[in-house]
Amino acid sequence: MNKHEFEKFFEEHYKDAYRFALSLCRNSDQACDLVQQAFVVLYTHKEELKNGLKVKNWLFTTLYRLFLRLKKKEQRFQYMEIEEMEDFLVEENKGAVLMDCQYVVDCLLQLDEPYRIALILYYMDELTYLDIAQVLKIPLGTVMSRIFRGKKLLRDLILARKSNKKKMKSLKVKV
User: Fold this and answer.
1) Using a CB cutoff of 8 Å and minimum separation of 24, what contacts does 1-10 make?
2) If I label 137, which of 12, 32, 107, 162 is the partner at 20 to 30 A Cα–Cα?
3) Which residues form the RNA polymerase sigma-70 region domain (predicted)?
4) Residue 98, phi-psi category: left (phi > 0), alpha (psi -120 to 50), beta (remainder)
5) d(CA 60, CA 97)
6) What does the pLDDT look like over 138-157, one tens digit per residue?
7) Which fold has domain 91-174?
8) Top CATH class, 3-76
9) Maximum mean pLDDT: which of 7-11, 52-56, 163-167
């Protein structure tokens, strides 16, 4: 497929691709992004694709796979629209949210090094378990157990703080 054939294919199939993407994600902005990504991938592989029917199938398969990746990423990270974020971060709560984030970081720093490093690589650097195993040169199962145990330890530290806050409030009320 040369550049001219690609442009013709784009003009013929953009609307169908957009309609399909919109039916998948039900969000016009995300649908535009998915279609754009799919056509970029198609353009980078245009020399490898020769049959026009297979190109259309390939495009829709690519769209679907990009959508699945997007959904997987959204499950891993909470997605909020800007309006929701503004409601969530009203002026009076900004300090509390920042303080809580700082406390979570402090709790994370209290963890033993193996757990702390695994959690940082997974959640902050967004590495996969396999990538973490390669970086740390440890077995995949060890990475999985460190992340599982690290999350449990971190949760326990955070919950301990919440219970300490409740105790402090009840002491203030009683005095």
Assistant:
1) 1/46, 1/47, 1/49, 1/50, 1/55, 2/46, 3/46, 5/46, 6/42, 6/43, 6/46, 9/52, 9/55, 10/39
2) 107
3) 9-76
4) alpha
5) 42
6) 999 999 999 999 999 988 98
7) Arc Repressor Mutant, subunit A (1.10.10)
8) mainly alpha
9) 7-11
